[in-house]
Amino acid sequence: MPTFLEEGIKIILSADSKLRDKTPILWSLPEKLPEGWGELKRMRYLDHDMSAGRNIKRWLKRDYETDSLILQQPPFEKHNDQSEIFTTVREPYERWWSGIRDFMYLLPWYSWWENEQIMQQWPHFHRGTFRIHDIMQDIKPQHMIKVDDGLNDRIVNFARKNRLLCMGNIPHERHIRHKRKDIQKLEKVGQQQLEQWLRRNPDWQKKLDDYLEPDLQYWDKVKGQD
Question: Rounded distance, CA 60 to CA 3, Å?
Fold first, then answer.
């Protein structure tokens, strides 16, 4: 009987796996906007952040009183709704390491980076580790919002400025990864060991640096936001 580790590797390496899929996730607000709030603006949300993205969708569903945000499928130019697009930008290395820690939750084996087949995918293993440049160069959102501890206030101010409905702070729900100490310990030890391995193997660090370099241009545009 296959072990948990063997099953995890099988899923990761499967030709049918969607873990590394980079298809843009573009959410459109309902065509019929809530009434009684003045002239609201319709916009679209480009979602490529696994943490902030969940909370932004919770805000939109709460305030627009809908469970039916419209997921636009490519080609995006075929859709009637061609409204402006907003998205979030997180510091590239911080985003990548967050994705790697999430990957360790999927594959709690600290030396997975010694598996040659898995490392053929380096440094992009699942949706939390792809570089946003691969999407942004095609979608080109008009509005970018910095992701850090001040995201809530930025979203509230952005909504007010752009006539989006926002009735208070955005909902925040912590992922199970951030609630359980055993998972946090697993992720912390795994990251420490991978960091040590990268220091001993600078060629792999360079591959990561080269991969993330295009994302730095987007961070440079938002890092000065209050």
Answer: 41
